[in-house]
Amino acid sequence: MRKLVSIELFKIFSKPRTYIGFGAIIIIVLAIEFGILLEGDTMMGIIIQNIKDRFIFEGNIINLYLVSYIILNTLWIHVPILVALVTGDMLAGEANSGTFRLILTRPISRVQLVLAKFIAGWIYAVMLVAVMAILSIGIGLVLFGPGDLLVVTNKVNVFSANDVLWRFGGAYAYGILSMTTVAALSFLLSAFADNSIGPIIGTVAMIIGITIISTVGASLLGPVNKYIFTSYLPSWQLFFQTDSGLSTMGHAILIQAIYITGFLGVTIWYFRKKDILS
Amino acid sequence: MDPYIEILNLSKHYGQIRAVDDLSMKVLPGDIYGFLGPNGSGKSTTIRMMLSLIRPTSGQILLFGQDLAKDRYKTLSRLGALVEKPDFYNYLSARKNLEILGKLSSISNLKHRVDEVLELVGLLPRASSTVRTYSLGMKQRLGIAQSLLHYPDLIILDEPTNGLDPQGQKEIRDLVKSLNQDKNITILISSHILFEIEQIANRMIIIDKGKALVEGNVQELVNSQDRQVAFILGDTVAGLTLLNETAWAGRIIKSNQERIYFKINKDEIPELNAFLVEHKMQIFAVEPVRSLEEFFLQITEDEKVS
Fold first, then answer.
1. Which domains are seen in chain B, by residue range?
2. C-beta of residue B229 within 8 angstroms of C-beta of residue B42
3. A271 neighbourhood in chain B, CB within 8 Å
């Protein structure tokens, strides 16, 4: 199994498209960090304009934690696309290029191959999130320095600097879980397709589509919303709540784990009996 | 000794379409076995079933005496294959491609073996080039190289000369012959070109519409059929005039300004040649004219009669 995973990783990192993801993240993080460096005061003014009359703000508000939090918010829109770009290609790409004929005529099991590909895709997703975390915190530290984190949603939460790192750690870890769900979905679509465009676009379209439906039609869907995986993709934000946020984390993790297992299970079931016609 | 490949009543249906229909065949150790049939006759589907790429609808495939469905790992580890187009990871070099495939087959001393097979197919000087820079002929040879990586006892080559120029086709045929003779590898080679199979195979099967038409020794099968031969004479009109006064007239199929076409068996060719020489006819060439379709037609006609 380790051998198969290392082969799949080698294939992933030999393809130019793999580096599009890392390149995009580097560009976006740098753009946001330098943008905030230049226009941060204006941006903060807009964010706190409704509350500045009632609170006194002291210290370094625009600090590395705030910037990292903003980047987290921004990049969870992009990272699923970048994950799908690679994981959606993992099975469909082999079908499209005809290389299944080479590898599936070797004495390896199809189940092991699917698992190895999924693990390799997952490692790629983890690396994307890790690069995002390291860059946003690293550059943020150099440009802005630490400070207390101010989170303004429908209420104002202030986290002291020594209470923030574990929250970021949790948010990134949960982000990895969310990206694993995205990877599992695109992987499933990839098993059904013979070229990678369909699974990549399909994954993004499904995530956006289901999110819109479940947001706009929340009242219509009612309790069903609680079981739709897209409802839980942004649940990393629970780490930046002070009250009951973390108590719902277990439910979010469970739902995502069920979807990951389900998507992967169907992929294995289908791929095991798939006729390789390409 | 068990046949290396034994297929028993194999069928593959796609809805109402019977891609392979109750096919049985045997490839014996040491064979170069021709798997002949027109495009769309079910050759590739059969080969894919032999390699477990496609699940049969019914029937059994025994490789090296083992049931493929039950013992896939063991059988595939003794088998190499090149199925249809030689597709590779185009963004990798030939060497990297072979290393990946070698690792999947758990080959020891892999680097040495990769060089060995690349040398065998004449690609060692280009081993570090990415496959996307390869010509089709080079990819075909690389395809054969990958099929040899794990020291197989049997290799299956699905139309390995497709798309190659005559020189490339000859190179592949020579390579196949040498693998069989020098390396003692049993080979199943599919083709839709009778001439190609005749050149290299000792046994063959002909299939059409997924069904076996005939199986046996290549020379016996080919020679048992009347063949079409074209004689190119110095004076075609004089030749026709001469022949029309003899029993050979009944063997003439057609003629044009350059050639006179006969349907005669192998032993009659020198006889006809001698007759024409005796009557002072200049013979510039004697050409075999036998397309696969004509051969099929003959076989199917024979089948109907029998």
1. 226-289 (3.30.70)
2. no
3. none
